[in-house]
Specification:
mainly beta; 14-stranded antiparallel beta sheet; 2 helices; 14 strands; globular
């Protein structure tokens, strides 16, 4: 696998773990199993509604000690013909002696296709800062990135992209709407995103169902399991295996994410949720 360097950290590691994230060494065909082909350019939203708000508690394991590192909160807002998707991550004060994070991700997506129109990343991680606003022209296959160390220090560059291009947030909500019940175990679905001025091929690997998965401080759930592959770089080593469990119900919200990183391991656990489209039918205890 070609090793890539990607500026990613505390919160983006969690975002990446919500789907398969890899630069593949072999072509990926859009045929995940049973002859089913997933439509990548548009999808009907049947899982979330404006007002949904989900928070995860993030843990970091170092020398066999799990530290409560911070939280990331995802929100959905209604903007007429668009959804405003956001993710805000920050470290706890007790963790900031080690590494301080204030990360803001925003994506404005078309309601009909769930494809992004505008994507914004405003990142402060330790001594690293980044502001990147990307405007997508899906018809002309162009992405215009206004990027720099801050909002006041930017340069705009235009990039050619492929059709049906997603960003790091839109792809999470898109994949929540994929129908997995008809897929065979270990099926893979190809998707792609534009981030850090590059197009990244992705694949979502379906690992089957677990009927009784215990989630810390939340109880026991019926779940769907994924094992995403990742981009080797500053956060993930090659051959890192990441495990993600989502609710096996109509909401399809992630419950638990576990992954080794370059130093130690990270875990994101569901802390709270509100404004779901459906009742939480996946909870069994």
């Amino acid at each position: 696998m070609r090793k890539k360097t990607i500026k990613t950290g505390f919160v983006l590691a969690v975002l990446c773990s919500l789907m398969a994230f890899k630069n593949p060494t072999e072509p990926i065909e859009n045929n995940p199993g049973n002859g089913q082909e997933v439509k990548l350019c548009e999808i009907e939203n049947r899982t979330f509604v404006p007002g949904e708000e989900i928070t995860y508690k993030l843990y970091y394991n170092w020398n066999f000690i799990w530290l409560s590192a911070g939280e990331v909160t995802f929100k959905v807002k209604d903007m007429g013909s668009k959804y405003h998707l956001s993710a805000v991550g920050r470290t706890y004060k007790s963790y900031e002696w080690f590494f301080k994070v204030r990360d803001y991700y925003d994506s404005y997506v078309d309601k009909e296709s769930l494809l992004p129109l505008v994507s914004v990343r405003d990142v402060q991680e330790g001594g690293y800062t980044l502001y990147d606003r990307v405007a997508f022209d899906q018809e002309e296959k162009v992405a215009r990135s206004t990027r720099g160390k801050s909002r006041k220090e930017t340069k705009t560059t235009e990039y050619q992209i492929e059709s049906c291009m997603h960003d790091i947030l839109s792809i999470i909500y898109f994949t929540r709407n994929i129908e997995f019940n008809n897929l065979e175990k270990n099926s893979q679905i190809p998707i792609k995103i534009f981030m850090d001025n590059e197009v990244w091929p992705l694949r979502v690997r379906y690992k089957g169902k677990e009927q009784k998965k215990k989630i810390k401080d939340n109880g026991t759930f019926k779940t769907i399991k994924f094992s995403p592959e990742v981009i080797a770089g500053q956060v993930f080593n090659e051959d890192t295996e990441m495990n993600v469990w989502v609710t096996d119900d109509k909401n399809r919200i992630p419950l638990l994410i576990e992954s080794p990183v370059a130093v130690g391991s990270v875990k994101a656990v569901l802390k709270s949720y509100k404004g779901l489209r459906y009742d939480m039918d996946a909870k069994v205890d």
